Amino acid sequence: MHKGPHPTQHAPALHPSTLYTAGQRQRLLFILFLVGTSNYLDRNIIGVLLEPIRDEFGASDTMLGLLSGLAFALFYATLGIPVARIADRGDRRLVITVSLAVWSMMTVLCGFAQSFWQLALARVGVGAGEAGAIPPAQSLIADYVPPDGRARALGLFLMSSMAGYVLGLVLGGWIAQNHGWRAAFVAAGLPGLLLAVVTWRSLDEPRRLPQYAVSSVDQESVWSALRALLAKPSFRLLSVAMVLYFLMAYGALVFTVSFLIRIHGLSVAQAGLWFGIVSGVGAVIGNIGGGWLADRLSRRNIAWLAWLPAIVLLMVMPLYQAAFLTDYLWLTLALLLLGGIGLTGAVPSLFSAVHHVCGSTRRATAIAILFFLSNLIGMGLGPVLTGSLSDGIAAGSDPATGLRQALALVMFAFVPAALTLLAAGRHIAADAEA
């Protein structure tokens, strides 16, 4: 049965986080962590299944980029903003529960696709469902946790992205190797239907209390919210930086498992296992360490929420390039680990910066805008651009060499991302809201 907040809820509260004990916060964050894990599992399992899908349907790297990127991101990005406005005005628990049920069912349907385009259509459905997950979840976290602990809480929540990613790589790779890629989709989607029931019964919505309800005065139109956010230089610059970040982190790097198979001769299960281990370890260190460091530095100067990830992105670029150019598997994995620590360590700072400047009634909307741009351009076009570049280079050599060189080249996008973040840091203090 759903439990309400701590009995102190009737006392005056400056922030909704005062409604909850430390134990209640941990329980609520754990449920959201499971939701995020399901979200990223169903989203990213496609990465370990690209090669068997390619073999069955005879798809090119460009088509695989379309399947793993644009087919998912188109509706994910488009529906994100209107769904987020619903979440900002009403029951975020309901939005998350319905979205979870939809994307889980569509993931199951991916396993029944009999053609490449049927699979692409099912992936569109997964993206449409997942549009209502992360922005409302982050909005709830911003209410559950005091502002001075927000980066750490977001860092822990964002580890769900890597938990889902690793599950997709390791479990998805093993199932695909032994039972086929269709079974992997079904196994990924079914648990989400059960989790939807748990989510509805376990999460709390502080807005059900009168003192935290969104009044009609606070219910801006979509366009008013967009204008207010885009009027802030820090938000505009953070948006550009996150598009470039997603272009690499959730775009180009979707081909990493294919790279390990083609260049280093690993099987699907081996590539998924090794990259899963590397990614998981990197995410734990990166998200926890990055969130802790961001909170510590931002107490001195809030601009560090943008400066810290800027420095990190400049450091990880040569690490990834070296990982894709070396012929030694152990060195590739070591470099991918170091790069992953930095790449995931930058994320808590980025999202914490957004929550500091967006205002309490625009949180889900602000995250949805960032996801609209980042996913449509970054995750949507990143795989397509990388795949097309790989096909173009491979026209004069072979698919393995084409993919290797394409991955090394696109990493240069980290440079303008870092420069944009350095500029954003100069405006965060002036743009900050409660």
How would you characterize the overall build of this protein?
There is one protein chain. With 434 residues, this protein is mainly alpha-helical. It has a single domain (21-205, 222-431), classed as Growth Hormone, Chain: A (Up-down Bundle). It has 19 helices and no strands. Helix 2 runs antiparallel to helix 12 (268-300), helix 4 (92-110) runs antiparallel to helix 6 (134-144) and helix 7 crosses helix 15 (347-358). The longest helix is centred in the middle third of the chain and has 33 residues, at 268-300.
Briefly summarize what is shown:
The protein is mostly helical and 434 residues long.
Total of domains: 1
Total helical segments = 19
- Under CATH, the homologous superfamily reads MFS general substrate transporter like domains
Mean pLDDT: 82
Low-confidence stretches: 5-13
Assign the CATH topology: Growth Hormone, Chain: A
Number of strands: 0
Helix content, binned percent: over 70%
Keywords:
globular, Growth Hormone, Chain: A, 79% helix, mainly alpha
Which helices and strands occur, and which strands form pairs?
Elements (H helix, E strand, L loop, with lengths): L21 H23 L1 H12 L3 H29 L2 H19 L5 H15 L3 H11 L5 H30 L1 H22 L19 H9 L2 H19 L4 H9 L3 H33 L3 H22 L3 H17 L1 H12 L4 H32 L4 H12 L3 H11 L3 H4 L3
Helix pairs in contact: 1-4, 1-6, 1-7, 1-8, 2-3, 2-7, 2-12, 3-5, 3-16, 4-5, 4-6, 4-8, 6-16, 7-8, 7-12, 7-15, 10-15, 10-16, 10-18, 11-12, 12-14, 13-14, 13-15, 13-17, 13-18, 16-17
